[in-house]
Specification:
Order of helices and strands: HHEEEHHEEE
Number of helices: 4
Strand content: 25-35%
Distance between the termini: 25 Å
Largest sheet: 4 strands, antiparallel
Length: 90
């Protein structure tokens, strides 16, 4: 989290994890429709679907992700997700 908080936007957008076909960006946008139903419902309940166009996520550790919104150069933290519950994977 310290690295996330002290990085520039360019540095965040250029961080990668994995190798070969498993290489992925650590920070990227995620469409609302791609996250879990529970996450979509919570976003709507808070009215964030009317304010923001999409979520952003940053991979902090193996399973750990921070989820939130980016607006005018500020990241608004919404979730600390340690179990892939916002974006479930097998």
């Amino acid at each position: 989290m310290h690295q996330f908080g002290t990085s520039t936007w360019d540095e965040l957008r250029n961080q990668w994890t994995g190798t070969g076909k498993h290489r992925r960006r650590r920070y990227h946008a995620q469409e609302f429709a791609e996250v879990s139903r529970e996450a979509q419902e919570r976003i709507a309940q808070l009215g964030h679907d009317e304010t923001f166009e999409r979520l952003h996520r940053y991979r902090v550790s193996g399973l750990g992700r921070v989820w939130g919104f980016e607006l005018d150069g500020v990241f608004y933290l919404l979730w600390w997700d340690t179990g892939h519950s916002v974006y479930p994977v097998d």
